[in-house]
Each structure stands twice: as C-alpha cells, then as structure tokens.
C-alpha cells in the first residue's frame, strides 16, 4: 500500500480526523472544527460543554462555545499520550477553529490519530480526560500569566533587550547580558540606592508599566510595584 492509499484508508476509517501529506516529508493530523459537516457536527463538543458546566462557565458566549477550541483539543491530545516517548516527535500548530499537529513519521500519526479517535468515541472516558487535561492547563496558564507579570518573566521573554527599571528601592539599568546574569544567579544580591536586595526579590517584583523606547526597539522602560515617582538614576553593577 503506497502513501496515498494509506492516507485514504486512514481518512475513511477515522473521520472527521484526516491526515494530509505536505509533499515535503511531513504529514499533518487534522481536525477542522469549522468544517465538520452535518454528519460530525459538534464532534466531541458535548464533552467540552459538560466541562464548562462543571467549572461554572457558560456553555456559550456571544454565540460561540466557551470551551472546545483547537488549543484545548491540543491539551487533551497531549494529556492522552503524555506517557509515550514518541509524543515528543509531534509538533503542534493549532488554531481556535482547528486541531493540527505534524511530524515526519506517518506511522506515528496513523497510530496516535486512530487511538485518539477511539478515545473521543468513549464519551465518559473522554470526559474524564478533558476535565483532567483542561484543569491542569488552567493551572499552568495561571502560573505562566503570573510569571509574565514579573521582572523575571520579562527578562525571560526579552533575553536580548535592555531595561531601565524603576523599583521601590531606586532606579536600575540592565544590559541584556546583565539580565541573563540575574536569571542565572537568582541566589545573589544587588545594591540599589545603597540598599542590598536579593536577586530573587528583584526578579519577583511585579511589573505595573512597560514602555518600549521609540528610537530603540531593544530598550524598555519598566516600573515595578510600589516604585516611587522620583526618577532617581542608578547604574547597575
């Protein structure tokens, strides 16, 4: 059986999932939520609606389902195969309206795709999986959001940027290299306006304002929580 025949066989047996050959050595497993057709309309959606009710969310908002996006299907798929080493060979490119993942190994997509469809068909088992996967994802997203709101999160997301930071203890200027040093040595201390501050305390400060410089894309001016209004400058290190 050649590749074309294998794809046809998979797509016939595993609707509404289907695999696409991109003719560059990669294959995608797809679930286009916006184009399911009448036969598969609402495929798996009732379980996501059940999850919404379980956590107190409305089932729909502004005419759209609150849960069941392609990103949430990705979380569920990853949870289903989290203990299988080959899951690391699959990359994801999901959207609100669709679940898409790809790899160079067709057999891997055929295996995972057919097993995942069987999981979805087991409504009660799928409901437990969705609840577990999305609950864990919500915890991760909250932690990531909290991290992004701190100076640590900013430095992690902007490793090549400079920062002028107004902190509660004074004004700090960081080069990109100094920012990386702080992230690599969070057990150290820094001196700000004559006050010794632990690096961890500095990195954990929450950002209340960020402004990118108009003339230097790599320079950001930052104000952390409870920073004083006085613009007192102090060079770092």
> How large a portion of the residues is in β-strands, by DSSP E?
15-25%
Q: Low-confidence spans: pLDDT under 50, at least 5 residues?
A: 231-237
Return the average pLDDT rounded to an integer: 92
Question: Which strand order does the major sheet show?
Answer: 1-2-6-5
Tell me roughly what share of residues is in helical segments: 40-55%
Shape: elongated
- Rg, rounded, reads 24 Å
Structural class: alpha+beta
Query: What is the makeup of the main sheet?
Result: 4 strands, antiparallel
| Straight-line distance between termini | 66 Å
What's the number of structural domains?
A: 2
DSSP strand count: 12
Number of helices: 8
Pattern of helices and strands: HEEHEEHEEHHHEEHEEHEE
Structure notes:
The chain is an alpha+beta fold and 237 residues long. The protein folds into two domains: 3-148, no CATH class; 151-224, no CATH class. The protein contains eight helices and twelve strands. The strands form four sheets. A four-stranded antiparallel sheet has the order 1-2-6-5. A four-stranded mixed sheet has the order 8-7-12-11. α5 packs across α6. The chain is elongated and about 70 Å long.
Concise synopsis of the structure shown:
The protein is an alpha+beta fold and 237 residues long. Helix content is 41%, strand content 22%. It is built from eight helices and twelve strands.
Q: Which properties best describe this structure?
A:
237 residues, alpha+beta, 2 domains, four-stranded antiparallel β-sheet, 8 helices, 12 strands, elongated, disordered C terminus
